[in-house]
Amino acid sequence: MRIHSLSRSRNLLLIFSSNTAISIIFYLATAGNRIFGNFALGFSISILGSTTSLKTLSTARSGKSTFARVNRLGNIYNDNIAANKRKSRKIIMSGSKSSGDVVGGKKHEVAIHWFRNGLRLHDNLCLLQATEQSSTLLPLYIIDPDAPFAQTTGRKAGAIRANFVLESIEEMNTKLSEQSEGKSQMIVLQGKPEEILPEVVKQLGATALFYEREPAAPIRESDAKVLDRIDTKKVKVCGFDTHTLHPMEHYLAQTKDQVAPSTYGVFTKIFNKMSVPEEVPDVSIDENFPPLPLSIGDLTAGKADSKDACQWKCPTLEELGYDPEDLENRFESGIDFVGGEDAAVALLDRMMKRTQWVCTFEKPKTSPNAITVDTTGLSAYVKHGCISPRRFYHELSKVYAKCSASKLSKPPVSLHGQLMWRDYNNLMAYTTPKFDQMLDNPVARQIPWDDDPKILDAWKKGRTGYPYIDAIMTQLKQTGWIHHLARHSAACFLTRGDLWQSWERGAEVFEEELIDADWSINNFNWQWLSCTAHFYQYFRCYSPVAFGKKTDKDGEYIRKWLPQFKDWPTKYIYEPWNAPLAIQQQNGVIIGEDYPHPIVEHKSISKSNMARMKAAYDEHKATVAAASKVKDGPKTLSKKRARTKK
Ligand SMILES: Cc1cc2nc3c(=O)[nH]c(=O)nc-3n(C[C@H](O)[C@H](O)[C@H](O)COP(=O)(O)OP(=O)(O)OC[C@H]3O[C@@H](n4cnc5c(N)ncnc54)[C@H](O)[C@@H]3O)c2cc1C
């Protein structure tokens, strides 16, 4: 058993009776008389390997159909996690009269609200239902210290996103504990959710588990592992699909054969038939807010003086293995991306005050290389649920109502259109198997990418020799955020444009470094930019020189992010290799010594890459034609794309 070192002198070891050998260390509060305010918890957990074997995801995915029911509030409670377990699992439709959650007004004695996204009190149906239906409630966050805040299993978030989530958790904890006057607080445990959560359920005797689902496959896969280990005869599992404007199943209910529309245009038609559900009331943390379960005391029974309480403690960035120095420049994009609902609401309010800007917003007209964020900058807050996408959508509607209809921009380029892209990306990801890879992904063109780690590394580190691209990658590294068209430029450059590396590698880097990293949106966009799927005009290519110049002739953006070029003559700022040696010497940057030569010659390589794309597309066509001759006929490939009933 591994015991994490503690900074506090008085501590107590508590051992969960469990086959997973979980050890939990409670810090005893050094001061304070509040019963729960100081209670718990710097839980630090070591898991010494579980004896329980887990079902693999593919097993879960092979389920025949998705169970789904829709309630009045427009939320869906579908168990698409392990369809083969349906018989034994009781599915709840909380929020509807028939939910069965509060039968005859009886609340759950002990319930757990498992936070992941949804770190907010406004428009949070899951938390609202949990508070209304429970006598006592454990607000729980689980961090896997081996891969904190991973989306793809095992791929830890970079320091900037990790810090953002920690700040959001801290803020939620402050709200819970201060507004409840110490009756509640966030409990943060470290370990694998599939090992910790079932143990906590058991230890507390919880009869209900509330959590918000996410459409992304790896999250659903990990949820399946958790739910596999919970006895659903004893525990009501209440999942909420509020991560997007509409639950994915609502879209699919509108489609033929439950296949996601293959274009945004068709998606828009479906979207327009539905109205975005209104927000639910804010969760108020008042005297009626359910306190922490009394049974939490059982965790310390016999181990502590009962008047002592444990103290909540979220691990620090350093404790999770990050280097705080990585945060030094994180606000340099021009918005202080501080995690949490308060900052999210303040930023949304600030943006919504810009009436004309909101009404006439057209994404392609915003600038990839503006010095300060040229769009709303809300993506990290939306991703982590600090702001509800529905609040965002409805606030936009309110602003639109103030403008003349003829001036309003429209989807796909308007801000409503951006949120619709988000839902569409999620829907594609939700319905497409192997969405994060080329092989066995039925929407992906098979393209014979090169695989050169040195080239990938040069791109990732901003050492390609193209200042526009290197400035983008530097901004990404230092702040976690880059403009949408900067993402376009960098992604095109890595893949079909110049370096001919797989989009999968690029998506991995973005998933690690973006503050708003979202598995579904990220993979969708990488497929798009590499002309792997969704977009096929490979002959339209972003120039790493000309494209940036369109919006930033003087190269201010490059000067900011690559300070060695601060005083460089404008004439050479995008192409420093063309500067005479005297100018290089004068400005203290010798190309080939202080800054790399261009990694490729864009004009020629982009041309030859187009020829490679054409060949790959031709081969794809031939494969489809050959497939059409076999028994299943011409629809083989598209049939495969039919939703997987994961
Ligand atoms: C290669 C690549 C990878 C990307 N990876 C991610 C990612 O991991 N996470 C992420 O949230 N966005 C991603 N995007 C989409 C987009 O670039 C960002 O959402 C946007 O730049 C965030 O800035 P904003 O909040 O100011 O956007 P705004 O323009 O203000 O848009 C408002 C909101 O709409 C959503 N949105 C905007 N653009 C898109 C889009 N194209 N697709 C889906 N949703 C969108 C976001 O939630 C955003 O906050 C990626 C784009 C590319 C080209």
UniProtKB/TrEMBL annotation:
Its cofactor is FAD. Binds 1 FAD per subunit. One of its GO terms (cellular component) is cytoplasm. SUPFAM superfamilies: Cryptochrome/photolyase FAD-binding domain (SSF48173), Cryptochrome/photolyase, N-terminal domain (SSF52425). Keywords: FAD, Flavoprotein, Membrane, Transmembrane, Transmembrane helix. The record marks 449, 503, 526 as: Electron transfer via tryptophanyl radical. FAD binds at residues 375-379, 516-518. GO terms for molecular function: deoxyribodipyrimidine photo-lyase activity; DNA binding; FAD binding. Residues 109-245 form the Photolyase/cryptochrome alpha/beta domain. It comes from the Eukaryota. It holds the Pfam family DNA_photolyase. Residues 637-646 have a biased composition (Basic residues). One of its GO terms (biological process) is circadian regulation of gene expression. PROSITE patterns: PHR_CRY_ALPHA_BETA. The chain crosses the membrane at residues 12-29. Belongs to the DNA photolyase class-1 family. This is Photolyase/cryptochrome alpha/beta domain-containing protein. It comes from Chaetoceros debilis.
